[in-house]
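Why do we care about 3D structure at all? Because function follows from shape, and shape follows, mostly, from sequence. That is the central idea of this module. The next example makes it concrete: a single protein chain, its amino acid sequence, and then its structure expressed as tokens.
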Amino acid sequence: MNNDYASILQISNQMTISINDIDMSFIRAQGAGGQNVNKVSSAVHLRFDINASSLPDTYKEKLLHIKDHHITADGIIILKAQRYRTQDKNREDALCRLVIIIRKAMLIKKKRRATRPTRGSQQRRMDRKTKSGRQKALRKKVDF
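And the structure:
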């Protein structure tokens, strides 16, 4: 993660996005903070328009198809960061969460290959069942 807020945000080794693509506004946070919470706008409201961004088209498509409650139907990622009491930490948190969402879209899931249990594993399973059944039969009441 790049701490230089003025220029770019490092997504991966090959990909970066401009901070200009990200709209951040500061709002008053809820919760802890004492009297400070009523006076200082320390929470960050981050908006990232996927369609208008400088991301490659393949990543835009993948992001738009992810099932994430932060992504609206219009293709805008909306994050609210208010975990910390300072603006800087909340800004860093919001940017980190944005990077995580974008990286999640970049992951390629391995396709599952259907497999069958081996003959040996089936035999071991049957042996365990037989042994268990015998053991339970020995617990029964003896009828004379």
